UniProtKB/TrEMBL annotation:
Gene Ontology, cellular component aspect: nucleus
Native species: Coilia grayii
Name this polypeptide is given: C2H2-type domain-containing protein
Lineage: Eukaryota, Metazoa, Chordata, Craniata, Vertebrata
Domain (C2H2-type) ranges: 114-141, 165-188, 191-218, 219-246, 247-265
GO molecular function: DNA binding; zinc ion binding
Region (Disordered): 71-111
Length: 275
DNA sequence: CTGGGGACGGGGCCC
DNA sequence: AGGGCCCCGTCCCCA
């Protein structure tokens, strides 16, 4: 999907110079939430569906629909938001999505950072806690009670001293808080489409979804006139123009444009019949 | 059944 | 450190 909606030269490994585009969409996104109440809809004015000159990305109308979480955001039932509504944790750049409802854990209370599960002593950091815990049994593997404010996850420190972050809502575990926070968004779904109410974990997922409403297709196939809203879909489409597809059956050497097709081919025993 | 498009999710990397 | 974006992948549906 449009995990990306920026102009990019195909066939290059280098990332595009986003800064060049920033003047077009960055700032707009940054102010969207305040400028555009969630109720507003962009696209129905038709003005959005643009003519797409090649891959030119027209973000023109997106901000309108790119609203922050609505009050009915599913994050509420998950009980993740409230503790994080403090503005402290929201370096969250544009606030284009979270608006205080972010799932991101807030900065813990400095006076009650990491608590020892054994004696309740509060430490200022996982490292300090680990050190402290050594005083109990010489090991630091004990569970670290995450800061009270962090209700979304529990942190544990492995015997090796590396912290791991557990999602409160599922068994997933991450080695960095950032990864966990990212994951938690898939539970809180802070990005809500103002058109249909569908919620997404990340802003760009929402942007891509919005294209399904606007009909915008910024990604054009250089070989035919087809255009796509999703770069991944264009990529898959490009495979159809290729003589030799990306995915090859190990048995019959037949190639497929998609992994799923290869999989289906394999499962169905298609390679047997083609041999 | 196969091929292809639409929509979306998540990890990793870069800034 | 956190956010934004890319890549890879999956699932569903339709012709």
């Amino acid at each position: 999907m449009p995990r990306s909606f920026l102009v990019k030269k195909y066939f290059t490994n280098k990332k595009p110079n986003y800064s060049e585009l920033e003047g077009q969409h960055g700032p707009r996104f940054a102010v969207v939430p305040e400028r555009f109440p969630p109720a507003e809809l962009p696209t129905e004015h038709g003005s959005v569906v643009p003519s797409f000159p090649g891959l030119v990305w027209d973000m023109g109308a997106l901000p309108l629909s790119f609203a922050p979480v609505s009050p009915t955001t599913p994050s509420a039932p998950l009980d993740l938001s409230s503790p994080f509504s403090s503005s402290s944790g929201s370096s969250s750049s544009s606030g284009d999505e979270d608006e205080g409802r972010t799932s991101d854990p807030p900065s813990p209370d400095p006076t009650e950072r990491f608590q020892c599960a054994h004696c309740g002593k509060s430490c200022s950091s996982p490292t300090a806690l680990s050190r402290h815990q050594l005083s109990h049994c010489g090991r630091a593997e004990t569970s670290v009670i995450a800061p009270a404010a962090i209700t979304t996850a529990a942190t544990t420190v492995s015997p090796s001293g590396r912290s791991s972050f557990h999602c409160k809502h599922c068994p997933k575990e991450y080695t960095s808080l950032g990864a966990l926070k990212m994951h938690i968004r898939s539970h809180t779904l802070p990005c809500v489409c103002t058109t249909c109410g569908k919620a997404f974990s990340r802003p760009w997922l929402l942007r891509g979804h919005i294209r399904t409403h606007t009909g915008e297709r910024p990604f054009s196939c250089p070989h035919c006139n087809r255009a796509f809203a999703d770069r991944s879909n264009l990529r898959a489409h490009l495979q159809t123009h290729s003589e030799v597809k990306k995915y090859q059956c190990g048995t019959c050497s037949r190639t497929f444009s998609r992994m799923s097709l290869l999989h289906k081919h394999t499962v169905s025993g298609g390679c047997l019949s083609t041999q």
